[in-house]
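Bug #77: duplicate submission created two jobs. Keeping one. Sequence:
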Amino acid sequence: MLDGMFSFVLVDTRDKSYIAARDAIGITPLYMGWGLDGSVWFASEMKALSDDCERFISFPPGHLYSSKTGELRRWYNPQWYLEQTPSTPYDPLVLRAAFEKAVIKRLMTDVPFGVLLSGGLDSSLVASVTSRYMAESESASQWGLQLHTFCIGLKSSPDLKAAREVADYLGTAHHEFHFTVQEGIDALEDVIYHIETYDVTTIRASTPMFLMSRKIKSLGVKMVLSGEGADEIFGGYLYFHKAPNKDEFHQESCRKIKALHMYDCLRANKSTSAWGVEPRVPFLDKEFINVAMSIDPEFKMIRPDLGRIEKWVLRNAFDDDKKPYLPKHILYRQKEQFSDGVGYSWIDGLKAHANEQVTDVMLGHASFVYPENTPLTKEAYYYRTIFEKFFPKNAARLTVPGGPSIACSTAKAVEWDETWSKNLDPSGRAAIGVHSDAYDKAAAAAVGNSNGCT
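Kept job's structure:
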C-alpha cells in the first residue's frame, strides 16, 4: 500500500530492530553497506558509505530490509513486473484521466514550484496539465496563478525553441537558461561527484540539469515537476522502432522501468538535490504505471503505416481538438533525448574534450586498468577517471551498470538490428534511419561503444 517517493530507515527503540525501504521505482536514492565490524549502514548518497563500509550496494527499489531476518524482500509486486504481455484494450480517456490525477497528486505543496520544460512531449504534457489545474489549486492562491517553467540549452538548441513555443502557448512565466560547452566541461567533476556514476549518457544529461538546478534554486524555487519515465513506459526511445513484435516491445519496456533507478531517476534526483531542489515525476506514479502497463502493447507499437509514431497512445490521449492541451506539432514532435536536445554540439564538444584528455595508448590499456565495465571510448574512459578519483573502491564501481547500448536501449534490444552492434552509442542520433538528424553512416562507424544509457 506504500505510495509516493521515499527512502527511509525506521527504528524500534524497544528492541533496537529496524526496517529500511525504498519506493517502488527508486525515484529517491538509497544505498546499503556493511562494515568489517558487522555493522549495517544506510545512506542516500554512496559517498557517505565509501569510507566506513567494505561493501555497499544500491538498495533495490520496491524492497525492504528487516534487521530481524537480515534479508531483503520485495514489497512491490505489480503484474507488469512479471513481463507477461497484457491484453487490456487501449482507452485514451482512461489513460488521460490517470495521468492528470498523477500530476495533480504532486501539486500538494507549500513552497514555490515550477516545471522543467524541454519542449518535448513528456515535459510539455506535465506543464499543460499543471497550468490547467493551477487556477483552482491552493498553491496558486499562495504563489500566483502563473506557472513557472524552466529550460536550459546551448544557444539555438532544439529544446530552447520548442520550450519557448510551449510556454507561450500555455502562458507560463518561462525562464530560459543558456550554457556553453566549456561551462559544462568545467562542471563535470562536480556533476560526477554528486550523481555518483560514470555512465556516459547519465553524465551527458546530468550536466545541463545540474547547471539549470543551480539557477532555479537562486530564484527561490524549491520543487519542480519533471517528465521522466514516459519513454520507458510507452517505448518512446527511437530504437523501439525496430521492436520485432509486441511481446519483445513490452519486455523491453519492463526492463527499462526496472532500471530507472540507475539512470533517469538517479540523474533527476541527484542533479537537482545537489542544489536543494526537489524533483517530482508524475509519469512514475504507481497507479498511472499500472494503467499504462496494462495496455495491450500492440497499441504502443510504432506503426508508420497506421500513422503511429513513438508514444502514439500518449499523444492520442491528449489530442483534443475542442480544448487542445498542446499545439499539434508539439504533441507529435519526434523524441529528442535530453542530452541531444540541449544542443547537438554539447555531445560533440564532450567527445572532442575527452579526445584531448585520453590518448590512444590509455584507451588501449583500458581493460587492464578498468577490468569491470571496461570503457570502450575515450569519453567513457575520461568519465571513469573522474569517478575513480572520488570513489576508488570496487563496490562503488559495481553500483554502475554496463553493457552494450544503442540510442538508450538495453543490451537485449541491441539484438533487434544486426547493424547496431557496429554503432553502439547512447545518443538518439545513433538511430540511423529513424532520427531526423541521425549520424551519417560514416560518422556512426567511428562512434564506438559507451557504457549503459538513460
